[in-house]
Amino acid sequence: IEMYRELKLRLLNGIHTFTCGLAYLAGFDTVKQSMEDADLSAYMTELMLDEISPSIPYPVSLQKAHDYARSVLARFRNPFLQHQWLSISLNYSSKMRTRCVPVLLRHYEQFGTVPEGMTLGFAAYLCFTRPVIKREQQYFGSRNGESYLLQDAEAPAFYRRWNGLSTVALVQDVLRDETLWGTDLCELPSFADAVLEKLNLLLEGDVKAALRKPVSA
Question: What is the 3-state secondary structure of 96-129?
């Protein structure tokens, strides 16, 4: 039971969290729509099989992880399931900490390299949670000129960061926030630079370029 709980947390919930900001900013409202796009589908598949599966912080065989991952991908393609990315983005920061950061840390423990897909997912999280509008106590991001509500406890902090820091300083400030992540993510070799590189592409509005361009060595 514990093994399958961990598989679900990392490979179903985790892939949702790594992907929701990226897919939504790319113009897709549902998981099913994203799976119909060659670039997003390839991103999700490679992230699950090549990065998350070998880095699950629980003793599980790679074969079991791959089998579970493929079943999740089949579920995502189910035409009768219309999971909304905006619903999945609820409490984005908390989900990133509990579902994704442990896998990121485990990847570095095992391989010591920048994980391409996780890096892009983290950069997309930063881009998605950029508040461009504040109305009373609500914060809104923007996609192609249309606003969306940020339902995240960290939205006020991100509003202050985006309005008071350069992009370089913002990335450093967020990654160093141990109250948010439980650790200093700037200590991961080259991770901050890779996140910044991807974030700059996303801020230019070119999600496809961010998907296709590998991070610099």
Answer: HHHHHHHHHHHHHHHHCCCCHHHHHHHHHHHHHC
